[in-house]
From TrEMBL:
SUPFAM superfamilies: P-loop containing nucleoside triphosphate hydrolases. Pfam families: Dynamin_M, Dynamin_N, GED. Keywords: Cell cycle, Cell division, Cytoplasm, Cytoskeleton, GTP-binding, Hydrolase, Microtubule, Motor protein, Nucleotide-binding. GO terms for cellular component: membrane; microtubule; phragmoplast. Belongs to the TRAFAC class dynamin-like GTPase superfamily. Dynamin/Fzo/YdjA family. This is Dynamin-related protein 1C. One of its GO terms (molecular function) is microtubule binding. GO terms for biological process: cell division. Forms homodimer and may homooligomerize and heterooligomerize to form the phragmoplastin complex. Binds to PHIP1. It is found in: Cytoplasm, Cytoskeleton, Phragmoplast.
Length: 595
């Protein structure tokens, strides 16, 4: 429940929000029919006119017993920067009304012009515009009161005629329904609630307003309704206290009436215990909570996307940027995964090199075999250079395996990080086709980076084989060998240079050189993998994808952004509700703080 101030703020801002979100009409509709509006619906003598006047802040509607509103009144409020208030009618466009008593009379006269001085009704609306610095831009529709029986002077069809007329307004999806029900009548018989439930079964457009709380029988109250026990609506019930007929006759102004209404709720023995969750501030908090919940769901399912090709391309690029951000966080340490690449360099590569069969390749028997084959029919004279080169070349050839394995290991990690990044990019969850397109493009790029990295690391190994470090071998002199058979360190004849000692020395020298190269490759292979794979993945993972989507037509872009239709409908519904609640909250705040 809330005061009239709350109701005014709520209705004004709800309608303003719907101006953007509502159905903008179609062929054959007048401007006011195309714009969103707030329809005031209720039974005869339910207090509709008082509620409407409280929203406007002016006395301008005809009053009386029975059916007073016999034509729809489309009331458009226009906020001005200042100056005097005035009104204009569409049927008298060059005439300004500054006396609102004259406005009341003009409404009555214009009604009679179409219906006569009878109790007939007409669906031809009266268009009234009020210009004032004290209102907000808002379209209100006052409709004939719903009734259950025809009275003297009315056709038997009047009951159905009124309902059909009201229904034609409130069934529009851009119409907010203000369902007015008097508190001194059974809510179960409320015509307004019954009709609202039929045209708005979800209750998202319906706000229940309970009037005449101060006119209830002694000892009774409306707590069951206001607390949602008697009839629950999606939005909280709003309780209002209108001016009495005596106050109307005394011309009690609306500001004083609103102040009196607030005092009524604050001091009422029936309703004061609810004050902590009534009024403007409570409604604002309630709407804020609803906004947070809707925002959370919208974040989960994604925000709406415009239909034009430029907006779709922008959306795809934003999705790619979001994915790229997550991917880089995996590599740079914000998320797990990048450390595994370092593990390849620090553990896997050295371990693979350590497992190479170099001991077997440089065994005494294999050294003898390789050296002998290199010497051919004429043994070497001083040092078996050709044999040593062959031993080194054969040893370095083993490094190609660990080099390629390092590249492949980095490639697999990058592919896994692409998969994880797509899964972790919340914005992409709603677009399965775009997920697949990005994954395919990213993996294609990683394949290209892997191929270039593989060529690079193999070149590194081949360069080591192509040119040996001269300084290292200049230190390798075939010094006289010491052994048990040569205690005096005498020169060993050339024929004895194939002794095991000599061969072991050759193997040892080659092993030392290969070890030096291995240490170099342990540093250069990771550098090559990072440069060709990791760096390029961070810099240009989706570059080719960007080029390709720039060439796509709107229909192809739409296909990349395909979604579940039910999800799209839910998002549209949430977006409308979010804008509506935000606007309502803002206006309630302005009312609560007197802005």
């Amino acid at each position: 429940m809330a005061t009239m101030d709350s109701l005014i703020g709520l209705v004004n801002k709800i309608q303003r929000a719907c101006t953007v979100l509502g159905d903008h009409g179609g062929e054959g509709l007048s401007l006011w029919e195309a714009l969103p509006s707030v329809a005031v619906v209720g039974g005869q003598s339910s207090g509709k006119s008082s509620v409407l006047e409280s929203i406007v802040g002016r006395d301008f509607l005809p009053r009386g017993s029975g059916i007073v509103t016999r034509r729809p009144l489309v009331l458009q409020l226009h906020k001005t920067d200042g100056g005097a208030e005035y009104a204009e009618f569409l049927h008298a466009p060059r005439k300004r009304f500054t006396d609102f008593a004259a406005v009341r009379k003009e409404i009555a006269d214009e009604t009679d012009r179409i219906t006569g001085k009878t109790k007939q009704i007409s669906n031809i609306p009266i268009h009234l515009s009020i210009y004032s610095p004290h209102v907000v831009n808002l379209t209100l529709i006052d409709l004939p009161g719903l009734t259950k029986v025809a009275v003297e002077g009315q056709p038997e069809s009047i009951v159905q005629d009124i309902e059909n007329m009201v229904r034609s307004y409130v069934e529009k999806p851009n119409c907010i329904i203000l369902a007015i029900s008097p508190a001194n009548q059974d809510i179960a018989t409320s015509d307004a609630i019954k009709l609202a439930r039929e045209v708005d079964p979800t209750g998202e457009r319906t706000f229940g307003v309970l009037t005449k709380l101060d006119l209830m029988d002694q000892g009774t109250n409306a707590l069951d309704v206001l607390e949602g026990r008697a009839y629950r609506l999606q939005h909280p019930w709003v309780g209002v206290v209108n001016r009495s007929q005596a106050e109307i006759n005394k011309n009690v102004d609306m500001i004083a009436a609103r102040r009196k209404e607030r005092e009524y709720f604050e001091h009422s023995p029936e309703y004061s215990h609810l004050s902590h969750k009534m009024g403007s501030e409570y409604l604002a908090k309630l709407l804020s909570k609803t906004i947070d919940e809707i925002n959370a769901e919208l974040d989960r399912i994604g925000r709406p996307i415009a239909a034009d090709g430029g907006a779709q391309l922008y959306t795809i690029l934003e999705m790619c940027r979001a994915f790229d951000k997550v991917f880089k966080e995996h590599l740079d340490g914000g998320r797990p995964g990048g450390d595994r690449i370092y593990g390849v360099f620090d553990h896997q590569l050295p371990a693979a090199m350590k497992k190479l069969p170099l001991d077997r390749h440089l065994s005494t028997s294999n050294v003898r075999k390789v050296v002998a084959e290199a010497d051919g029919y004429q043994p070497h004279l001083i040092a078996p250079e050709q044999g040593i080169r062959r031993l080194i070349d054969g040893s370095l050839g083993y490094f190609k395996g660990p080099a390629e394995a390092t590249v492949d290991a980095v490639h697999l990690i990058l592919k896994e990080l692409v998969r994880k990044s797509i899964a972790a990019t919340v914005e992409l969850k709603r677009f399965p086709s775009l997920q697949n397109d990005i994954a395919t493009a990213a993996n294609d790029a990683l394949e290209r980076f892997r191929d270039e990295s593989r060529r690079t690391v193999l070149r590194l190994v081949e360069m080591e084989s192509s040119y040996l470090t001269v300084e290292f071998f200049r230190k390798i002199q075939m010094e006289p060998e010491k052994n048990e058979k040569n205690p005096n360190n005498k020169e060993v004849p050339n024929a004895d240079r194939y002794t095991d000692i000599h061969l072991r020395r050759i193997g040892s020298n080659v092993s030392a050189y290969v070890g030096m190269v291995a240490d170099t490759l342990k540093n250069t292979i990771p550098k090559a993998a990072v440069h060709c794979q990791v760096r390029e993945a961070k810099r240009a993972l989706l570059n080719q994808f960007y080029i390709n989507i720039g060439k796509k037509e709107k229909e192809q872009l739409s296909g990349m952004l395909d979604e579940d239709p039910a999800l799209m409908a839910r998002r549209e519904q949430l977006a409308k509700r979010l804008a509506l609640y935000k606007s309502a909250r803002d206006d309630i705040d302005s009312v609560a703080w007197g802005k």
